[in-house]
């Protein structure tokens, strides 16, 4: 009887503990949602005053015929642009934290998708004053992706490669498939990322050289956004770099597996 009593007590305790844990987890989830909602609301509210600031600085510049305040107004314009980017980036991350990031996933053929992507990368890299070198996959592989989002992630890598690479240097885009995945690589010939910084570059607001990032208009949220997008697609993102030897960033995404076709030759389904 004593043993039965002890067992009942232990079971009771365990139940109470479990209920307490569930309650704590629910409270934590509520607090986390409140935090991301707040961040999303705050970012949204900041958009309007920033637009007003920008428009006023533009008008000021037009009225400043003798260019007496040119430098100051230009700085206001640049900083308000940087802050707008920061607000958009924060809004993106707040939405993805609260799982309300809209994703329009569709099955696409890798070859045309990569060809279009290569075109966008070339334009961006040239705009940034670097030389694009593009080599993309030819094949029948298919991906289930939101093409706009994956393009955004790859453009972040290409932008960084052009920004932090050697001025006028080459930025290469290449891709390859194997082991059930497709990898897209962006490489530069820049000064690279020191070994101690490499594990941290995907963290929010982590910058190897804060002054340089700021000068380039960076927000410190580019790589975290790329990582969020890639992981939401079930993929992974990696950085390889050695000081003085350039940087290679790689995005790998799962391929859509082909079902073996039946002897009757019915259509394949993904
Ligand atoms: P940022 O807005 O500062 O560019 P990111 O999150 O995109 O922010 O990148 C974080 C930091 O990683 C950058 O500030 C830079 O120091 C470093 N970094 C990213 N890409 C490269 C690269 N290709 N070569 C050297 N450093 C890089």
From TrEMBL:
Q: Give the principal location in a single coarse category.
A: membrane
- Covered residues, full protein: 205 to 474 of 489
Q: Under what name is this protein listed?
A: histidine kinase
Q: What is its EC number?
A: 2.7.13.3
Q: Which GO terms describe its cellular component?
A: plasma membrane
The answer to whether UniProt assigns keyword Transmembrane to this entry is: yes
**Group of enzyme by EC:** transferase
Superkingdom assignment: Bacteria
Q: Name one GO molecular function term.
A: calcium ion binding
What organism is listed for this UniProt entry? Rubrobacter marinus
Q: Which lineage?
A: Bacteria, Bacillati, Actinomycetota, Rubrobacteria, Rubrobacterales
Histidine kinase domain ranges (all copies): 41-257
Q: Where in the cell is it found?
A: Cell membrane
> Which keywords does the record carry?
Kinase, Membrane, Phosphoprotein, Transferase, Transmembrane, Transmembrane helix, Two-component regulatory system
């Amino acid at each position: 009887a004593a043993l039965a009593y002890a067992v009942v007590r232990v079971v009771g305790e365990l139940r109470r503990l479990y209920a307490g844990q569930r309650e704590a987890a629910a409270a934590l989830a509520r607090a986390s949602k409140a935090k991301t909602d707040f961040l999303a609301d705050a970012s949204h509210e900041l958009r309007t005053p920033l637009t007003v600031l920008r428009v006023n600085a533009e008008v000021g510049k037009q009225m400043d015929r003798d260019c007496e305040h040119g430098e100051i107004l230009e700085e206001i314009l640049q900083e308000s642009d940087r802050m707008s980017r920061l607000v958009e980036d924060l809004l993106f991350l707040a939405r993805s934290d609260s799982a309300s990031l809209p994703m329009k996933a569709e099955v696409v053929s890798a070859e045309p998708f990569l060809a279009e992507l290569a075109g966008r990368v070339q334009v961006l890299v040239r705009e940034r004053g670097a030389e694009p070198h593009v080599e993309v996959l030819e094949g029948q592989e298919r991906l289930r992706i939101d093409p706009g989002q994956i393009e955004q992630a790859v453009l972040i890598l290409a932008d960084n490669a052009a920004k932090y690479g050697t001025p006028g240097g080459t930025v290469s885009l290449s891709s390859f498939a194997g082991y059930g995945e497709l990898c897209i690589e962006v490489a530069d010939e820049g000064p690279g990322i020191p070994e101690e910084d490499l594990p941290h570059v995907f963290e929010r607001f982590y910058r190897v050289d804060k002054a340089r990032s700021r000068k380039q208009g960076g927000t410190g949220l580019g790589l975290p956004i790329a990582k969020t997008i890639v992981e939401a697609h079930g993929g992974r993102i990696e950085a390889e770099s050695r000081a003085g030897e350039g940087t290679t960033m790689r995005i790998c995404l799962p391929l859509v597996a082909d079902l073996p076709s039946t002897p009757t030759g019915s259509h394949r389904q993904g």
